[in-house]
Amino acid sequence: MVDQSVLKALKILDTLGESDQGVSLSELANLLGFPTSTTHRLLKTLESQGYVEKDSISGRYAVGSKVLYLQIASTNRLRLVRAAFPHLRVLTHVTDETANLSTLSDGRVVYLESVAADRAIGLYAPPGSIAPAYCTAMGKVLLSNLGEIELHQWLAEHELTAVTANTITNSAVLKTQLLEIRNQGYAIDNEEWVEGVRCVAAPIQDYTGRVVAAASVSIPLARFTDDRKQDVLRAVKQACTAISKDLGYR
């Protein structure tokens, strides 16, 4: 079911986005065929969240800085995926396992890209898939690179619920592990998100040195032998280094 209020708000943003001079309340109501009171209420809500700005002199409305922020974020994600994709393909070829790319959004892992190996049936997570950050290798890499205040806030807002028998549910234990991950430069998820599957992940940095994403390889437990561990870890770190370099990191 379509939420009519949301639909109307989106139509307002579309209309404002097409105007170079801004649009007055009455013009906007007439253009969209909405009651003036409804249009004003939606505009005030959008304005309070930064999606709409009102000129204090002319009284005309225009799209706000939050829309620009979303546009920049979308462009950066597209650039990230384009830079990462060829290296993910190489990573899949070298390891013969599924390679993944993700970032942190609203405190959760969002898969931006996955390249599945032929034998990796059931391990493919399509772009847009979401997973908890605290029990996935990529998520823990991303959490480990948050600032102290950011991590404290994340822990206050997210419950560490057990997903498997191996999921870490104690915040003190998680914080200790995140410090280790940050120091060593990689994370291994020990069947904490999916039973029978381990993941190896490392950070990806942009031109400023900021960690903006993580890449990983998902491996069924039966194929994650001690002999393979170092080879897979080396391949993942090489891929992340190559992606970071393509994003301008030196």
- Characterize the largest beta sheet: strand count, sense, and whether it forms a barrel: 6 strands, antiparallel
CATH C-level class of the largest domain: Alpha Beta
In sequence order, what are the helices and strands, one letter per element? HHHEEHEEEHHHEEEH
Proportion of strand residues: 15-25%
- The residue-averaged pLDDT reads 91
Shape: elongated
Q: What's the CATH topology label of the largest domain?
A: Beta-Lactamase
Query: DSSP helix count?
Result: 8
- How far the N terminus sits from the C terminus, by CA atoms, comes to 49 Å
Count of domain modules: 2
- Outline the low-pLDDT stretches: none
Helix amount: 40-55%
Write the CATH architecture name of the largest domain. Answer: 2-Layer Sandwich
Q: Count all strands and give the number.
A: 8
Derived from helix and strand composition plus strand pairing, the structural class reads: alpha+beta
Give a verbal description of the structure:
The chain is of the alpha+beta class and 250 residues long. The chain has eight helices and eight strands, in the order H-H-H-E-E-H-E-E-E-H-H-H-E-E-E-H. The strands form two sheets. A six-stranded antiparallel sheet has the order 5-4-3-8-7-6. Helix 4 packs across helix 8. The mean pLDDT is 91.
